[in-house]
Amino acid sequence: MMNFVWLLAVEAAETVEEGGGLFDLDATLPLMAVQFVLLAVALNALFYKPLGKVLDERDGYISSNQVDAAERLAKAEQIAKQYQQELAETRRQAQAVIAEAQEEAQKIASQTVAAAQQEAQAQREQVQRELDEQKNQAMATLEQQVDGLSQQILDKLLGSLAA
Amino acid sequence: MLMIHPLVLAELEVGQHLYWQVGGLKLHGQVFLTSWFVIGVLLLVSFLATRNIQRIPSGLQNFMEYALEFIRDLAKNQIGEKEYRPWVPFVGTLFLFIFVSNWSGALIPWKLIHLPAGELAAPTNDINTTVALALLTSLAYFYAGFSKRGLAYFAKYIEPTPILLPINILEDFTKPLSLSFRLFGNILADELVVAVLVLLVPLFVPLPVMVLGLFTSAIQALIFATLAAAYIGEAIEGHGGEEHG
How many domains, chain A? Predict the structure, then answer.
């Protein structure tokens, strides 16, 4: 163990003598810095720029595609809405046409019924008038006959009396 | 030394470096070797992922897009939606470099490759690498604040009250210090713990610690990148005073 420690000490002394050691700063430092900067420049040209460009382009591509798709979706929705509106409009028109036709039919029917009723009324009135006329004629004839008969009766009675 | 060393600490070599002399400058060769490996992996994967880019990603492209989105989210959360884009390369490279470094250190048996001195390990277990990254972060947030707000950026030093001026100045030193030492310490300590355990019990026992090491490595990369982004965001926003662990 003593030997070990002693040898360690020897080594420490040796390294100090050589000018080596852990904290041996020398021209390695600036050269390493230069080398690192060159590496950064090389990697910038070889790695960061081309791949960064690809990443940005892809982002742009995706976002533009997304915008495009969103636009198309909006357009499709608009068309669907328009179609719905047109459908509703057409339905309403159809309803209106049906209603109009029904109304017209109703009108025609009621007109026809009214005309028929009027005609019937007119015919009835005419018949009534003819009836009344005939009745009056008949009454008039009857009155004449009554007058005649009563004259005859009177004549007969007066004749018998006179005789 | 070379005779005694294998007997005493077997595989443990701390503070030993493979020195390269380049025009009178001393370099840590093993750090550069592994960092070149890491850089090569990153460049190769990036190249393969972006070779044939498609709108609908698959395979490697998908994976790297996931990584990029992760980095972007990180930067966006810390810096803000408006300003984060120019900082993605810096923050992202910090994260990727540290992450791949840490995991390469933990997953690849570098120690099978023998070097004359020192040993291959994660580049982030050398203080030079972490200090370099931390100083770059400091420069980055100074640049971010200065370019965004001009001289008004320096008003942050006396922001709540001028009494806090020394603390605010101190903060600019403690930020890179804590960044670099946190990363360096975690990675080095993790490798040391694994090495010591392997030394004591070579089989199976180090495995849970190795798994834990993978976890902490990933967390450290995330922490470094997040803090760097947070400092930059703070400098740009200029509310100041927010202290991040």
Answer: 1
